[in-house]
Amino acid sequence: MDAALRCASFEERRDRALALFAEKGFGQVSMRELASHLGLTAGALYHHFPSKQDLLYDLIEEVYEELLATLNQGRRVHQQTLTEVIAAHWALHAERPLQFRLAKRDLCCLTPDQQVRIGQLRQQYEASLLRLIVPKSTLRGQALAATAHVIANLLNCLPSWLQASQLPQAQGLALMESMLMGGIERTLRGESLNTMV
Fold first, then answer.
1. Is the full-model pTM beyond 0.85?
2. What is the C-alpha separation between 91 and 102, in angstroms, rounded?
3. Same structural domain for residues 135 and 189?
4. Which residue numbers delimit the DNA-binding region (predicted)?
5. What are the per-10-residue average pLDDT scores of the chain (197 residues)?
């Protein structure tokens, strides 16, 4: 079998593993069941991934690498607008809904070292996101870090919620944009925090 065919076969099996994890839950799938579902022996599966956690880590890591690439790609071409950032997140969620579900639901199933590495990727993503959309925020310190965390969570939860609502795509995206832009602009000007003091 040539390299291209092996690679395509591996990607197909990886997608099937992703679907099984998303359907049943990572913790409910044994290595034997996974191998059987993929049409492999357990030994052949172990050849590619030493453990289920390594496969899960690979799938979750890919999500954060894609998120970072989306932000960094826009920075190379031009300064992305918040509208473009929102649209890029919407499109990525539409393309990889199962991976986002795993990243949210099954992160706790990773080893502690893997969780730390994913946490580092998430921090890089949040810092890049903040630099991109709010380069001149009046917020500082913990308030700014909390803002980045909330914005990242909204950007990565709203698409799933709205895409599941059966709204037409354009209407769902417009609703997401409206929700995020209004809240972000007000918060980053510091209005919410200043009025609470």
1. no
2. 17
3. yes
4. 30-49
5. 55 88 92 88 81 91 92 63 87 92 92 96 89 69 81 90 87 90 71 46
